Amino acid sequence: MHKMALGSLVLFGVLAMGGNAYSQAQIDFPKRPITLQVPWVAGGGTDVGARILASIAEKKIGQPIVVINKVGAGSQVGLTELSRQKPDGYYIGFVSTPHICTIILDPERKAAFRLDSFTPIITQVLDPGLIWVKAESPYKTLKDLLDDAKKRPGVVRASTTGIMSDDHLAILMMEKAAGVKFRIVHFEGGAQQLTATLGGQVDVSFDNVGSVVLRIKGGQVRGLAVMDRERSKFLPDVPTTPELGYLSVISSSTRGAMGPKGMPLPILKKLQDTFREAIKDPEHIEKMEKTGLAIKMIVGDEFGKYLRDLQEQCKPLVEEARKAEQGR
Length: 328
Fold this sequence. Notes:
single chain, D-Maltodextrin-Binding Protein, domain 2, 2 domains, nine-stranded mixed β-sheet, globular
């Protein structure tokens, strides 16, 4: 048989097969709107970044990308729902690290998913951790905060965006490094945390640069320290924790899109190509700059490896965090 004819028959056979074969429906994807789930409350850093990305990506893929919020248990509710979706590309979700890893590692959370329950698509953001207070706070510096926490152990209220979040682990790291003890208050995302901090329900918050950078520039809140090895380009006047003597207090959150396990390769590639193009788009870059969210793109298998490596790094931190919480 002629090689070209044989090739045509093979292609026809692949298109006709089920399973992992490429159906015409997969090749024509998408034919209807795509749902992008954010497992955090609207208005937080993850939600803002996801909505910026969706607004640009939908122009490139030719169908609306509708952002919804599924909130609860530090993103566990949303991640559980995402893992149970049909892997046809029409329901995907945003994930934040290290939350997905710490949920899986904590046996008390009884997670219904593992890392291999998802298909990594692409990351959008790497957002350094930030320690911040409202503008009227008596804490002008990190030293002011820690000095007071030493004098009043277990009294100064420090908030997180969720149990076992990067912010929660950052508080525990700071407690250990500075020899202090905070009264930890957990919220379901940055929007709730901001309201409570501005309202005086908590004294200090641990979150990320992108969540409050505009509030800092507007004079509503004050950054005490960026938990990174380098100063943030968005907050060049805020010192880093290593600068202030706390070399081990390094924290950040990486965020990106994932789908359920088993997404067909043509659909996965279409989404990756679309989001890659959207992330590189000047409009996306400009909006992210204005919002204070640092772009970090990791695609597909590399994203998966990043998550597996991070989960290994998180194991001792989660054990330490569980012991610390049990001792409170």
